[in-house]
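Morning run. Coffee first, then this:
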Amino acid sequence: MTTATGLRPMTAGELTKIVLNKKELFILDVRNQSDFDDWKVEGESVEIINIPYFDLLDGVDPVLDQIPSDKPLLVVCAKEGSSKFVAEQLVGAGRTNVSYLEGGMKSWSEHLEPVKIGDLKDGGSLYQFVRIGKGCLSYMVISSGEAAVIDTLRMTDVFERFAEEQGAAIKHTLDTHLHADHISGGRKLAEQTGATYWLPPKDATEVTFQYEKLEEGREISVGNIKIKIQPIYSPGHTIGSTSFIVDDQYLLTGDILFIESIGRPDLAGKAEDWVGDLRNTLYNRYKGLAQDLIVLPAHFGKVTELGDGGRVMARLSDLYRDNPGLNIKDEETFRRTVTVNLPPQPNAYQEIRQTNMGKITPNEDEQREMEIGPNRCAVHDK
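And here it is:
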């Protein structure tokens, strides 16, 4: 709703569409510099500067020359209040086409945008849910009135609503591994819908709840489609990491293989133990798969990985040609690459792992705070 001064809120969904459609936008981020440096809104046609809120309390006149007058302007802060205040000052200074981010970066972190990946051979569809503010990706397979959700995020209401809109009942929720960068919604969604929750047993040795074992060779039926659990399980990011082939077309790789990087083996403190598994999965096991499979990862690290309509996907053969993590011939060089000089670890990753094991039960505000920031699951996301 536009105010009498011409100021209007912009929702995270509206901002997402601007980024995905590569529309021009100028952003003034008024958070502290350290928060800005850690995590910000990014987009191919997005220009952004950081001027902390406390530098603007006496007015915006000194910074007007840094803000173009011929582009749509969005002011961003952590929760909303500071950005609305600054945006009002900018309107008062004569700027037009000014918005503030409704709900701040917290809302940006939680927005999920469903995009259709494609139709399945015997009927049904595969959708990718892009959590653009954090780089997380979930999936929903729909066929004949049934659905399965893979790597569910904690905003479970989004998946319930979408399945209902598609006329589908959620029958299965699956996690490719025990996540360390975000809180899984798989178990919660299963409880809410009566679905079966699946988790790799090698990642579940410390969990406190019941689950169905996600093991090699099992097939999970979704309507007319079978989600085939990869017959060669794919450890390396975690010891239980499991890949899914959907409809003989799509390879869901979890956090093992991304579009521009590969998974890191250190988030459970087992980097030296798991580096050999990671190399074997990437350089041997995936090599034995059909190379025309479309890779669909559980994360993206850079906006350059967003393709048409926001889809994050690539052919396996193209990744073996272009992905730097798949082209390290020397084993010792590979070992150093995935264990030394890695990006910072995800925010509160130990607490997130404990939550996903069921050992601690943070409330909604605590969960939101734990997840703030980028996912940092990839080796090359410096």
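The chain has a mean pLDDT of 92. Good start to the day.
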